[in-house]
Amino acid sequence: MTATSSGVIGVFDSGFGGLTVLKALLARLPEARFVFLGDTARLPYGSKSRRTIARYAAESAQFLVNEQGAEFLVIACNTASALALDAIKEAVDVPVLGVIEPGAAAAAANSLTKNVMVIATEATVASHAYAAACRARGLHGVEKACPLLVPLVEEGWIDHPVTEEVVRIYLKELLDEARQNGQNPDTLVLGCTHYPLLRPVFERVLVELTGPSGVRVIDSAEATAAEAARLVLETGGFGLLGDGEAPRIQCFATDSVEKFERLGSRFLGLPVGKVELVDLGG
Amino acid sequence: MTATSSGVIGVFDSGFGGLTVLKALLARLPEARFVFLGDTARLPYGSKSRRTIARYAAESAQFLVNEQGAEFLVIACNTASALALDAIKEAVDVPVLGVIEPGAAAAAANSLTKNVMVIATEATVASHAYAAACRARGLHGVEKACPLLVPLVEEGWIDHPVTEEVVRIYLKELLDEARQNGQNPDTLVLGCTHYPLLRPVFERVLVELTGPSGVRVIDSAEATAAEAARLVLETGGFGLLGDGEAPRIQCFATDSVEKFERLGSRFLGLPVGKVELVDLGG
Fold first, then answer.
1. Are B42 and A152 in contact (CB < 8 Å)?
2. Residue B278 DSSP class
3. What is the CATH number that goes with domain B8-98+222-277?
4. Does domain B100-220 have CATH number 3.40.50.1860?
């Protein structure tokens, strides 16, 4: 935030799912430059403990800020946002935005019944971060860990009968739980950056289970990008907006850069370019 | 191997799947003592690079030998055996047995057609370690990565229609590939320590696809335990056999000891006891 501003926004995820957030950011901030780090050597965070996730996320944030000059950080990982946002804010000296609060705010703006459902990883659900953020906005919610969905997306079974059946099982259990609690949910929050790739499957199964206007899908990635863009623009760009050049992206990964380059474009919707390997000592 | 022998066998896995190997070892060496390490903070290894897997596995082996006094190491992780056995042997000064060679030897002993199929993680298949070990024994084989099976086992969907359908899809693709190569496989090697929990599913689907005596399932965990017991017993026990006390197990994990304690018994077939948390600096 100084006169020598590097003008870079840092985006962090445990893997490359967070590229769905970067995709939404690119659309909203076409003049900004981005550095993205996927901590692929230590993924998945979703099945690990708070202590371990906090350490990994803080190290990753420090790499983006101290070594890559990021002046604004978007934590594009639900698990890290849910369990390590405070640890990240302590570790670096720039503004930090996670995905939980924007996701919950978007759910609150959408829900008429004030009953929402959240699906996420094991660790995100166990943290109850979404439940707390929803409660703070007057919403009642049910949450469910869906640990099979990330591997299904990474296997490339996006539009596949097995994936549809798994989604059907998970969503039916979640709806049953909500109804047993006397709730009438009208909103489903996608609390994991892999899930937007399955959005058409969720929408198809929700129509089957709740009718054509039963439940609307809210994507935390999209909500977070909107909030990040608002923060950047309302403060005059934080020095983060470029001079009209094409958007520039530099991606880093702690392991498997070939896999990142191969699968990343599926999430980003365009080629990720050359991914640089970085060693965070893990 | 000295007069002050600690009498402990070290068993290592990236997670707790290797407890299926420990289970087989307990049955074969009822008087031995075991230390087990699951590197749960850094799992899964199966999707990571050779460089990273070698570093993690060497650090884990050093913990078992240097800090826990293991005098014989069983690498109960197919991925580490496939990609890091040399790195582990360089890192420690005790005999080391991986799961690949015993698995391939058992396949060779079973196969009449000399055509085998191997299923494993992404990294194990990419290493072609099973293919090389099979070729050295005059076998021809096809291999397939089955990345959805570990998450399905960990979700507890052991006897579940979705799991059966996923197994059917994977095995059908593998059989088709073998037949296109003009092969007639009669043996399926389970090249991942999670897979023995799905053995009834594999057997049911194989009967459906190849008839009642079409393909026999070989479990690398079982083959490795048999080879480890042979090595220990043929050398007079290596000082590793106790004085007739009940078998003793001490389990360590680098993360999520509660999850280890909760799920571990599913793999071990008996309670894993209190799991100690250890920090390998990753």
1. no
2. -
3. 3.40.50.1860
4. yes
